[in-house]
Amino acid sequence: MKRLILLVVSAVLAFSAFGQEKIIIRIAGHSVDKPVKEALIRDVVAPKLPPNVEVVFEPVVDDYKQWLLTMLAAGTPPDIFYVDVYWAEEVVKTGRVRALDEFLAKSEILKKEDLIPVLVDAFTVDGKLYAISKDFNSLVVFFNKDMFDAKGVPYPSADDDWFTFWDKVRRVHNPPEWVGICLNPDFARFLPFAFAAGMPFLNPDGTAPFARPEAIAAAEWFSAPIRAGFGATAADLGVGWPGAAFVEEKAAVVIEGGWLIPPIREGAPLMKFGTTFLPTFGGRRGNYLFTVGYGMPVDEILPSKRPDLVWKVIELLTSPEAQSYILSIGHAIPSRAALLSHPVLASPADPFQEAMRTVFIATGLPGTVPFSFAPVGSIYHVAVAEALTKIFTGELSPAAAMQEAAKKLNAELKR
Amino acid sequence: MSWLRGPRRNELFWAFLFLLPLLWTLGVAFAYAFFRALWWSFCDYDLFASPKFVGLANYAKLFADLHFLKALFHSLSFAVIVTFTQTFLALLLAIALNQKIRGLTFFRAAFYTPSILSSVIVGLIFIWFTYRRGVVNFLLTVARNYYPYFLSFLGLVIVMQSTLVLWGRKRGFPVRAFDPVYLWISLFVGGVGAFFLGHFRLIQPKSMPPVDIIWLETAEKFLGIPRPLWAIMALNIGTTVPTMMLFFLAGLQDVPRELYEVAELDGASWWAKLWYVTIPALRPVMFLVITLGLIGTLQMFDQAAITSGVAPLDSVITLAYYVYWNMFGAGGLPRVGMAAAAAIFLAVLTLVVVLIQRRVGIGEKAW
Q: Which of A89, A93, A67 is nearest to A78 (CA)?
């Protein structure tokens, strides 16, 4: 008798396990995103999915692109991964990322018209869309209003050109309490100014453009604070990045993106600060568009084997509720065009919301290009970065350094 | 095959069984990986498309690549300089710590600490120390501004010690030049004297501008080797000397006491004992230390990887970092063929260097 009961019970248990097959969908993102993503999944995504589907966020602590390439090569990627515009083309070229056009066409919640056009272009390779942009960012000028008031200098504004801007920074420079600007020899800050000066990405004959007079002029202008002494690098101020110098009130001005807003909110919530667009040169302004999107691997290596469900999760992660949530915590600007009329962006109530509004408008201004170096690759910015480092340490003059960078890039391009 | 029967066979079976985990790990992680890398070094492969056989083209491309040649030069000079210096310093330290002095255990533990710290963490702290306004430059500035104090302290100590020693010898005592008691007195007098000289303004600290040496974010060279690499050499020596010192200490315990007694009977001085007894007896340990040093320094990767964030690539690139850079750093898809070729080259180079050292330098047989 006992054996019979045991048999029946185990049979029931065994069969009940088959009834509701549990599907796990894995999203892999940067480990810093963990709290936000898990809250998003819990509050916005999970309620709308069938009960046997579980969405799990797996943080990646390594270099993300490296990790992703290894996973794609090994055939064990997550269901959803981040795609950064900086290396989007590289990853798509592996042939293991799924094109999303057919899903978009059939979707009821997410349509191509819903997304901001420049963000769709950023992830389109060879006419096909490979990732849905989840947010974007660009560069603006952050300035500390109290420091400008103390020195009686007018605030930087959208009307500033390169020369009036440096003039204001020079006047607000106040050693030893604060420096005018905290500036690193960062190619991502320098190149938009070089492009605004008229330097093309490559010369028409495909060679490096760094030896052009516009490029050298931009290098001279960009390094002026360090060479003339009214600015300092982050290392000289004893901080890890210029944003930290701004939050710790060691610098009056920094050039950063919307990612500086959460640190200010945490580290200096009462700071009176303002934001404005980058200064112009000859009426032209340059900027970089930074954006990250969600992508999925091709069906053959999709771990959950349910592309329809994975697409549904992507839809939910980029839904109006999800993006509204992200906007309200000031994390980044959402990619849905409809959210542009959200009160936070339309009528900002505090400096943080104003800053987000400035970032958002700056992205749409002419002269903004996606932060991508395809098809030349990272050798482009490595040459620029080394030139900038040598200019900032005084090892070489701007002209000599830029010419050396041009020679280096040309040598690499010939390989 | 009579020896393979009975208890012997049983023993062999159990030996093999116990060795199996190690053999499995060696087989998978080493043999399989090695032969696969060897195969890939003859292919053009990017991890996604299937490998295309290209023969020796990768090796030819290696020698045409400026980055590789720089990496080769850096690795060789790094290996030679660091191995030589760390062997020398480790030997000195071991001999010093082999005396019977008070607090010996404490000193041994204290000197060993740099080796047990994680090299990544030590590397990060090292980067902070070598900022332009960092600790190293600060200490150099202090040294530069306060050198009158150091010089006067040193001068007073020398004067005091010579006076005491000569006075003691005049009275007929066999006083050694570095007699500890007199030395403590001289140090005390020197310290107090320097302090009072400063107090009464007879010597003053200089106020020179702060030392502003850029240690890492530069491509400048010193004696043909980039300055960041010199900084990494200093770091590497500091963290490896303690481990080598341990080997030497162990070796020193094995030197037969009779040899020292015989030497003393023959009237050998401290220096003669060191040169004619200790060092020759330590030859097997020295062979070990030099070989391990060469292998480790030729394959130096972690410190180059950490400082590559702040220093220019061409100033810190080593062969091991070149392998990594071809796989993940250069942008674009991984260049597996080049990376594998460089890795195989590095393995062969290490083997050749060690063999040369064994033939031409310190051999492994003791005296």
A: A67
pTM value is 0.80
Check if CATH label 3.40.190.10 holds for domain A24-134+290-346: yes
Q: Which of A87, A379, A393 sits opposite B217 (nearest CB)?
A: A393
Contacts of A349 (CB under 8 A, 6+ apart): A343
Sequence spans of domains, chain A: 24-134+290-346, 138-283+372-413
Closest chain A C-alpha to B133 CA, distance in angstroms: 6
| Chain A residues inside the 8 Å CB shell of B332 | 90, 377-378
**What are the residues whose beta carbons fall under 8 Å from the beta carbon of B189, sequence distance 6 or more?**
B156, B157, B160
Are the beta carbons of B331 and A95 separated by less than 8 Å?
Answer: no
Query: How near does any CA of chain A get to the CA of B134, in Å?
Result: 8
Match domain A138-283+372-413 to its CATH number in 3.40.50.20, 3.40.50.970, 3.40.190.10, 3.40.640.10. 3.40.190.10
With CB atoms and an 8 Å threshold, state whether B313 touches A386.
yes
Task: Identify residues of A whose CB sits under 8 angstroms from chain B CBs.
Answer: 63, 66, 69-70, 72-73, 87, 90, 93-96, 235-236, 238, 373, 377-379, 382, 386, 389-390, 393, 395, 411
Find the CB nearest B132 among A94, A236, A382. Answer: A236
- pLDDT tens string, chain A, 415 residues long: the values are 888 887 777 777 666 555 567 889 999 998 878 888 888 888 888 888 888 899 999 999 878 988 999 999 999 999 999 999 998 988 998 999 999 999 988 888 788 777 777 788 889 999 999 999 888 889 999 999 999 999 999 999 999 999 999 999 999 999 989 999 999 999 999 999 999 999 999 999 989 999 999 999 999 999 999 999 999 999 888 888 999 999 999 999 999 998 898 899 889 999 999 999 999 998 999 999 999 999 999 999 999 999 999 999 999 988 888 888 777 766 666 777 666 677 777 788 888 888 988 988 888 788 888 898 887 888 898 889 989 988 998 889 999 999 999 998 998 888 6
B255/A contact by beta carbon, under 8 A: no
B115 in contact with A, Cβ within 8 Å? no
DSSP classification of residue B207: -
- In chain B, where are the structural domains located? 58-117+224-360, 147-199
| Contact yes or no for B332 and A235 at CB 8 A | no
ipTM over 0.90: no
Answer whether B190's CB lies under 8 Å from B156's CB: yes
CA distance A401 to A226: 15
Determine the residue type at B355. Answer: L
Q: Identify the H or E element spanning A129.
A: strand A128-129
Architecture in CATH for domain B58-117+224-360: Orthogonal Bundle (1.10)
B332/A94 touch (CB, cutoff 8 Å), yes or no: no
Q: Which residues contact B346 (CB under 8 A, 6 or more apart)?
A: B75, B298, B299, B319, B320, B323
Contacts of A186 (CB under 8 A, 6+ apart): A385, A388
The alpha-carbon gap from A321 to the nearest alpha carbon of chain B, in Å, equals 36
- State the count of interchain CB pairs (< 8 A) between A and B: 57
